[in-house]
Amino acid sequence: MWSLNKEKGVPIYVSIIELILAHIKNGMLLPGERLPSERKLADYFQVNRSTVVHALDELVALGWIVRKQGSGTMVNEGKWGISTTPRTDWRRYLEQNAFAKVDPFMEQIEQMIKQASDETLDLYTGELPLDLIPSFSFPPLTWKHFLEEEQQDDLGYFPLRQSISQKAEKESGFSLPSESLLITSGAQQALFLILQVLLQSGDSVAIEDPSFLYALPIFQAAGIRLYGVNMDQEGIDLTSLEKVIRQHRVKMVMVNPSFQNPTGKTMSMKRRKALVKLCQNYQIPILEDDVFAKLNFIPSEQIQPLKKIDPENVLYIGSLSKILGSTTKIGWLSAPTTVIRQLAEARKMMDFSLSIFPQLLANLALTDEDFSKKVSNLTQCLEQRGKAVFDILAKMPEWEVSMPKGGFYIWAKWKQGRLKQKDWACFLQEGLLIAPSFFFSEKQDSIRINFSRIDHEQIPNFETKLKTITKKITLDSVTL
């Protein structure tokens, strides 16, 4: 395991870094596992101790290992602050491919979804079931109609940008001028463009802990260091955020303030205003992910977007994918005009062209006279399904849960602490597919449930499965 392949022309400390990284990535070194002492590693590699120290220092700086006084050097248990090391040939580039790393638990879930057993409840998938996606009638369209459509420029289909702007003004009372809107192929393309244009490798970004952003490989692929900030019932904790900003020279704060993924929490107006003020003081931009904006169970005036509070300092991401389905892949990014133009130019240079087809369909949906009514019916149905799931969890003393104010996620915390690997396996054994908290954080004590995927007839089955799993986990903890 500790046999070092010394390559000609490669510094020895780099070879040591490569070896340890390879062991971490292939599972020979597990999260939390302690490495041999510096003296032992020097003996294994037949090198000076200073060479080993140099290599370990680099791995600490990259976030792959941590040093704890009195405990030695250990593999980092999470992904906070991790950055990849540069490579000099194709083999090494592939070794650091962040997109190739799939969690084994995720692989098992996705395999079970493909098998589509009648006994399996898929509450893991992060989108609406087909029966809830609103249906819209479109006028007859010919292929020639699409070819002749000339109202698209570098920012996207102009009528769609106008419709988005008008909806924002009507529903939330804030301005998203069409010239400040960039239509994207979903919210993740907007995020990708921001990483490529406004940030650079080695920059630090603060996000909520837990957060769906933690699970995205694009940050690690871009060399961006993520730092998680704890949340309370009002949203991201600002005292902790300020400490992270100071300690890590944070370049951007990314939040999902309304019906947060995965916790379902909604940031209070008081916290929203304080967050904006804090970031203004440090001259740090905020990226606001507001893809669940239209799926609110409470009046929209209670959840004003950060963009409305501070139009100049907030980058705003919206999407229709949570309503029309992920195949639509329509999102948008609002930013100051100079920023939007740079992002559009970057996309053009990367040849990320955007098809007119989904944009035209999205605009037809948005301008449908029954759009608001259909979304209202959808949110009513979501609230009913969420309440049914919440009522079951609230009656179980082992779980801590709050009813969300919108979206379609419920976050349930196991009150007895960390769940072990065999506890997580119970969910798979019972065919109850959920997203575990370790997808979104270092924490291993909670589950995310997509309650939109449980209709009235499935509620008894859900309750039976969850009670069986809860009983198994409880008995397991008692026997230890």
Shape call? globular
Biggest sheet strand order reads 6-13-12-11-10-7-8-9
Mean pLDDT across the residues is: 89
Structural class given helices, strands, pairing?
Answer: alpha/beta
Q: Tell me the total number of β-strands.
A: 18
Through-space gap between termini = 33 Å
In CATH terms, what is the architecture of the largest domain? 3-Layer(aba) Sandwich
Organism: Enterococcus ureilyticus
Keywords: Aminotransferase, DNA-binding, Pyridoxal phosphate, Transcription, Transcription regulation, Transferase
GO molecular function: DNA binding; DNA-binding transcription factor activity; pyridoxal phosphate binding; transaminase activity
Family: In the C-terminal section; belongs to the class-I pyridoxal-phosphate-dependent aminotransferase family.
Describe the structure.
- This is GntR family transcriptional regulator.
- It is a single chain.
- The protein is of the alpha/beta class and 480 residues long.
- It has 3 domains: 12-77, Arc Repressor Mutant, subunit A; 117-132 and 373-479, Alpha-Beta Complex (Aspartate Aminotransferase, domain 1); 145-369, Aspartate Aminotransferase, domain 2 (3-Layer(aba) Sandwich).
- 42% of the residues lie in helices and 15% in strands.
- It contains 18 helices and 18 strands.
- The chain has an 8-stranded mixed sheet with strand order 6-13-12-11-10-7-8-9, with helices on both faces. A 4-stranded antiparallel sheet has the order 14-15-18-17, with helices on one face.
